[in-house]
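so the lab meeting is tmrw and i was supposed to have these ready like two days ago... anyway. pasting both below. for each one the top line is the aa sequence and the line under it is the C-alpha cells. i havent really looked at them closely yet so no promises
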Amino acid sequence: MSPDHNFLFASLDSKPPPTTRKVHIRRLYDVLELCIQRNDFVRAKRAWTILIRCKEFRWEEHWTTGLYILNEGGASTDNIPRRIEYLRAMMLRDIDKETMLKELILLLILSGQYQKALDELELYLPSFPYQDNPVLHIYAGLLSLQLAQSKDGSQVLDSSLIRGAQSHLNQAQSIDPSNTITQAFLQKINTLQKRTDENGTIDSEDETMQVDDSTPKRKRIRKT
C-alpha cells in the first residue's frame, strides 16, 4: 500500500492512515463532505450510515454533521420531530450537551412548543454547567415572558411567569453584563408591568384553570 494519500478534508485523524481500511474510511469521509457541499443529501445519508458503523469513526464528535444531514441543509420545519429525537438520543452521551440543549430548545421553539422548551430548560438550569450559561437563561426568560402573556390579546399577565422571566434574565445579566438583549427585555418586562398595574395580574394557579391543557405543569427531576 502506498504511504502517500491525498485527502480533501482533515477533520478526521490527521495522521497518515496505517491500514487499507482506514484509507477507505478517510475516502468515505471525503465523499460525505463533498456530497454535503453539493447538497446531495441522498448520497450523504448513505455515506453517514456507513461511517457511523465503523468503530474508527468517532461519530459522536460529528453530531452536528448528522443533524445537518437530517435537515438536508435547509431550514424546513417538516422534520423537526426527527431532529428533536436525534438530539435527545445524542444528549445521553455526555458530549457537547450545552450546545445540544441550545439546539433542542430552538427546535422546540420553532415548532411552537414553548411550554415544553421551558420545561426542558428548567430541568437542566439548576445544575452545573448549565446554570452558568447566559444564553440558556435568556431562552428561559423569553419563554417565560411569552407564556406569561394572555393568549386572548389582553394586557393581563401571569405574575408567576413574569417573576420567572425576571429571575432568568437577571441571572443572565449577572453572568454577562454586556449583553444588550438581556437589558432590553428587562426593560420590556418593566414596561409590561406598568401597563398592567391598573388591569391587575393573574396567578399561575388561576391561569392553569383557564388554559385548555390537560397536562399538569410540574418540574421534572433530571437523572444523574
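ok protien two:
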Amino acid sequence: MASAITHRDEETPLLIPDESPLQLEPHKSHSRDVHILSLAFLLIFLAYGAAQNLQSTLNTEEDLGTTSLGILYLSLTFFSLFASLVVRILGSKNALIIGTSGYLLYVAANLKPNWYTLVPASVYLGFCASIIWVGQGTYLTSTARSHAIVNNLLEGAVIGDFNGEFWGVFALNQLIGNLITFALLSDGQGGSTKGTTLLFVVFLFVMTFGAILMCFLHKKRSGNSKEGYKHSEVDAGESESLKSLCSSLTSTFSDVKMLLIIPLIAYSGLQHAFAWAEFTKYVVTPAIGVSGVGIAMAAYGAFDGICSLAAGRLTSGLTSITSIVSFGAFVQAVVLILLLLNFSISSGFLSTLYILFLAALLGISNGVLMTQLNALLGMLFKHDMEGAFAQLKIWQSATIAIVFFVAPYISFQAVIIVMLVILCLSFCSFLWLALKVGNASSPLHR
C-alpha cells in the first residue's frame, strides 16, 4: 500500500541538475505539511479502503465488485506510465488535490452500483490514483529534504522519520474504516440498501474533509525555481516533457538500481493483494467467519501503523534500510511457511488469537516494506522523483491486477509457493543492490 529527495516547485523546469541548490521555504519546520498530508490520506483511504473491502460482498451480481477492482488496477497500471509527466506539469500539490476527486467519485458510484457507474468510476480512479501516489511520494520526500537542509539534519534520517509518520498514520485507515463499517452495518441492516447508503454517505463526508485538507499544504520549491517564473515557460516545456517521458521510461530499464528494486516493488503489490483477497478468503473466513474479517484487518492495520512509525524512526541510511527490510522479509517468510504447512489451532479462542497473530505479522511486514521502499526510492533517485514513484505504482498495481484476475484459477497453496519464490528472488535482488551501492561508497551508506 513514499518519499524522495530533490523537489521542484509547482512551476519549475522539468529537469533539475544535481548541482542546483535547494531553495528553502521561508518557514523552518516542514512537519506541519507532513501532519496535514498524513491526516488527509487517512481520511480519504479509511473510506475508500472500507468500500474496496466490501466490493466482493455487496456488488456480487455478475461479479461486478471484483471485476471493477480488476479494471481499477489495470487502469492504474496504464496511467502510471504517464503519471510522472502529469505530476511534473501540475506540480505535486495540485496532483494531490485533483487525485482526490477519483476516490470521491468511486465511493459515490457505490450509492447506485451498476456497470454504467462503477466501471467508468474505476477507470477514472486508476488515473487519479496514479497521480496522487506519485504526487505523494514526490511531495513527502521534497518536504523531508527541505526540512533536513534548513535544520541541518541528516537527510536519510528525516526521510525515514517523515515516511514513518505518513505510513504509520495511513495504516490506521484499515482499523478506523473497518470500525466505522462495523458500527453502521451491525444493526441487522448490513445487507439493505438503507444501511449501505448511510455508510457511503458518511464516507463521502469524511473524504470531502480530507480533500479540503490537501488545499492547506504548502507548495514546494527547488533550485531552478525563480520568483518570476511564468506559467508560459511551463507550457513551452511540455513538448520536451513528452520526450523526457519516453526517455525516462526507457532509461529505467537501463538503470541497474531501479532494475534491482523492481522485484521488491512487485512483491509489495503481491503482498497487498494477498492480504486483501487470499488471506481473508482462505484463512480468516474459514477459521473465525465472515464477521471476523473486520477484526483481522483491523489488527493488520494497527500493527502496520505501529511498525511503520517504528521503522521510520530507525531509518537513517542504506545500512539501516537493509537491516529493516531483512527483518520484514523474515517475518513475511514465517507467515507464508506457517500457511503452507497448514498449521492451525483447533481451540476456538486460541484459533482466533492465532489468526489475529498472523494478521498482525502481515501488518508488520507490510509496514516495514512500504516505509523502507519509499525511503529507498527517495534516497537513490534524487533527480527523477516523479519517475521513481511512478515505477512504484506501475509494478505494484500490475501485480495486484494479476492477483485479482489469476488467483481464482489457482489453488491457495500454489499462491503461497509463488509468493515464497518471489520473496526470495526479490530479497536477493535487494541485497545485491545494497552491496552495489555500498561498494560505490555512496553517502547513503551510513
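from a quick look at the 2nd one: Residues 78 and 394 are 7 Å apart (CA to CA). The domain at 31-222+253-439 is CATH 1.20.1250.20 (Growth Hormone; Chain: A;). will dig more after coffe
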